[in-house]
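Progress report, Aim 2. The chain analyzed during this reporting quarter is listed below.
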Amino acid sequence: MIAVDHLCAGEPAASAPVFGYRVLASYPHDPTAFTQGLAYASGQLFEGTGNYGRSSLRRVDLTTGHVDQEIRLAPHLFGEGVTVWQGRLIQLTWREHLGLIYGVPDLDRQDSFGYSGEGWGITHDGQQWFLSDGTPMLRVLNPVSRQVVRRILVQDAGQPIAALNELEWINGEIWANVWKTDRIVRIAPDSGRVIAWVDLRGLCPASMRPNAEAVLNGIAYDAEHGRLFVTGKDWPRLYQIEVVPKPQ
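Predicted structure tokens for the chain:
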């Protein structure tokens, strides 16, 4: 039986605080990149893009936005979230139940694995993988067997948080884009409790978004230098931001 972590029934629910942001830097980003996953490791920025017939895995120059290397997925695969794990890069697919594993930094295809359900976002804490599928439930996988060992129900004030998308592990927390919103949710991995929200409204104005699908999606953390990067689907810019208290 797979364990499900959740808030205790007798625990008083309190809505999590909301933080704002400060832009520290802005970089060019391919406005045709339907960003599904973002990761930063060993001084390299990696990006997974989606849509059938257009999905890819890329190594991108952070400062110029130039795509230094691109691996195109087969037309029947819809690329989703990415993460760097023990010197290899993992990329999910949406409905194809297939995870792809590449070498880093050369992006040579090395392995694959299967999983049930949809794949949206992936991250890890150095010991286990966390997968999202657009529901309020995160799956926790054993990286060796690649099997689900438990599930985490994400809740704020007792309410499940749906549409969890791209994931990133940051200082002991799971950060998740919430699909079709300009908000990131910060999650306690042991309980699924929402620790805080980050409100990124105004970061990329509507005038810079080419269509309704051009939503916030993509979180990458440079753990060595403490830098936080975010972007969105078909956004022309990628931003380095700092999380700050929200103005009253």
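Residues 182 and 200 are 5 Å apart (CA to CA). The chain has a mean pLDDT of 93. These observations will guide the mutagenesis work planned for the next reporting period.
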